[in-house]
Amino acid sequence: MDPLDATLDGYEPRDAKEAGDVRRVRDLLARPNPWSRTEPLHVTASALVLHAPTKRVLLRWHDRMQQWMQVGGHGDPGERDPWQVALREAREETGLQDLHALAPGEQGRAAQIVIVPVPAYGDEPAHEHADVRYLLATSEPDAIAGETPTAALRWLSIDEAISDVDEDNLKTFLVRARQALEGS
User: Fold this and answer.
1) Which CATH number applies to 3-183?
2) DSSP for residue 142
3) To bridge 126 with a disulfide, which of 14, 43, 74, 120 should be the other Cys (CB 3.0-4.6 Å)?
């Protein structure tokens, strides 16, 4: 079974909007490559990196979007597993090599699936990302290293992060992270 299909099968949307987004992502499975950046809607994968002992979250400055966001991005050619894409992207963007699922047994289990608009930029037209999101943990929060000089990273409390982010879907993701931390 395709890893994206398996992820969708194991996911429980929390409201009608999210159920609609999951249906749209499922429709992408009929395409030869739902990860293709040439499609106006394509799959991406991302994660919030958490440090459970201090209940902090790591956010990354996204130069193109000019805002603080979670880590993540596009699959590389041949990648089809959103969990693996999110994990690779998180390691690349944070320098943290000890990343793992926040809770035991949660490896590969999405915390949020959401379709987000992406504005036009340069030669790239406006499009949408079908983002599959995960909660990751580190035990080495001081080992962060930004991917580039302009890709700043910072640790925040969940409340601080909610205040600092712009997108409602990311605020929802942060609330889910807080709930997961409270349950751990």
Assistant:
1) 3.90.79.10
2) G
3) 120
Q: With contact defined as beta carbons under 8 Å apart, do 41 and 24 qualify?
A: yes
| Rounded Cα–Cα distance for residues 111 and 177 (Å) | 8
Q: How far apart are CA 176 and CA 15, in angstroms?
A: 13
Residue among 163, 154, 179 at smallest CA distance from 49: 154
**All residues at 6 or more sequence positions from 18 whose CB lies less than 8 Å from its CB, including other chains:** 112, 113, 114
72-118 per-position pLDDT tens digit: 999 999 999 999 999 999 999 999 999 999 998 999 999 999 999 99
Residue ranges of domains in the chain: 3-183
| Token pair listed for 39 | 């499609």
Please classify residue 26 by burial: count the beta carbons closer than 10 Å to its beta carbon, then call 0-12 exposed, 13-18 middle and 19+ buried: middle
Residue 82, number of CB atoms within 10 A of its CB? 29
Q: Would you state the structure tokens that stand for residue 72, as one six-digit string?
A: 């993540």
Tokens of 169: 């879907």
**What element of type H or E holds 101?**
strand 100-101
**Three-state DSSP class for 167?**
coil
Q: What is the pTM of this model?
A: 0.96
